[in-house]
Structure to design on (359 residues):
């Protein structure tokens, strides 16, 4: 038996009206003098309905995964008037920073480390680690990632930093006292989604079982959120993977599904993101209502837009998007890849050291 809506013109207005009816799949329905089975009739009336859904889903997944190179006539320089290079405009940046305390926020994947096929091998280079260490010696610094906090720490291995994992839902302060830190609390801890841990573990186990038949799919437990990576999944399997993920979480109203760069992010429904993490850390450092602070946030993914937006709304701070291709952003400046991020961090350290020498 199939429940369907049949469209019949209203006798007075002539406007098509839909009425739900039930009939067996084998039933025949007249169309243009011919008899069609219901299934064939529905396919004839709306042959592209499923195809449209699949295409829309694929378009959404592609848009969330901007790994392409710029097209001809769409090079990185074409959007520089609105989002100039942070390296090219470094003097402008330092002018804005004069007399202010800089606080540095860094995403991890695609910002400090390159995007790689296996997320477990997104290692930071020794040169980048040294650049981050030097920055943390001079400025309060934090890494804000969608990854599990412990995993990011294992990659970076710098105790001078704040670490905000799970999109800021798991925050801990540095174990070493920072020369610029205003408050004495060295173990700042924020876990607003702790109550969701049992549900997240339950969904994690279900997802592993549900997608294990899809080659290349990887489920990552970030403790306070989950990631389903499809970077190594053939594109003709993307829709199937998306459907399987939605099937698992459909009964969990406490969780929501987001897209990242070739990844599905499953998070608690609480209002907390990287932007909230930035606000929390600024408050913890004593800069919440300060006019002499300049927060800098560097990130490459759409989840970093929450932090860019917070800085823009505060009217205080600068967002730097790491991207080779133009895209909509709340950031003020751009850098093309992690190598440029490293160069920017080094210049920031050199500028600060010179400033200290002058005083």
């Amino acid at each position: 038996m199939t429940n369907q809506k049949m469209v019949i013109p209203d006798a007075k207005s002539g406007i098509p009206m839909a009425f739900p009816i039930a009939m067996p799949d084998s039933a025949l329905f007249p169309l243009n003098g011919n008899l069609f089975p219901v299934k064939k009739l529905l396919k004839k009336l709306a042959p592209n309905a499923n195809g449209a859904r699949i295409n829309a889903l694929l378009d959404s997944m592609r848009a969330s995964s901007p790994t392409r190179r710029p097209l001809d006539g769409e090079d990185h320089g074409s959007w520089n008037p609105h989002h100039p290079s942070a390296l090219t405009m470094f003097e402008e940046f330092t002018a804005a920073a004069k007399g202010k305390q800089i606080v540095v926020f860094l995403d991890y994947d695609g910002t400090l480390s390159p995007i790689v096929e296996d997320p477990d091998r997104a290692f930071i280079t020794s040169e980048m680690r040294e650049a981050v260490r030097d920055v943390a010696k001079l400025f309060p610094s934090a890494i804000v990632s969608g990854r599990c906090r412990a995993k990011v720490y294992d990659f970076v291995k710098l105790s001078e930093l704040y670490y905000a994992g799970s999109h800021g839902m798991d925050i801990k302060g540095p174990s070493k006292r920072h020369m610029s830190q205003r408050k004495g609390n060295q173990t700042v801890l924020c876990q607003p989604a702790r109550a969701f841990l049992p549900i997240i573990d339950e969904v994690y186990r279900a997802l592993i079982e549900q997608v294990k038949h899809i080659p290349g799919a990887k489920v990552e437990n970030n403790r306070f959120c989950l990631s389903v990576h499809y970077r190594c999944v053939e594109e003709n399997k993307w829709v199937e993977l998306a459907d399987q993920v939605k099937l698992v979480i459909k009964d969990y109203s406490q969780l929501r599904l987001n897209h990242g760069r070739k990844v599905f992010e499953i998070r608690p429904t609480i209002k907390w993101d990287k932007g909230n993490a930035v606000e929390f850390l600024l408050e913890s450092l004593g800069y919440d209502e300060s006019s002499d602070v300049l927060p800098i946030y560097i990130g490459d993914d759409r989840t970093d837009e929450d932090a860019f937006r917070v800085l823009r709304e505060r009217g205080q701070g600068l967002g730097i998007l790491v991207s080779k291709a133009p895209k909509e952003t709340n950031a003020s400046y751009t850098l093309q890849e992690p190598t440029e991020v490293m160069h920017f961090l080094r210049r920031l350290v050199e500028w600060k050291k010179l400033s200290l020498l002058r005083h």
In short: The first helix runs from residue 38 to 45. The radius of gyration is 25 Å. Confidence is low (pLDDT under 50) at residues 2-36, 38-47, 67-78. The first strand starts at residue 2 and ends at 9.
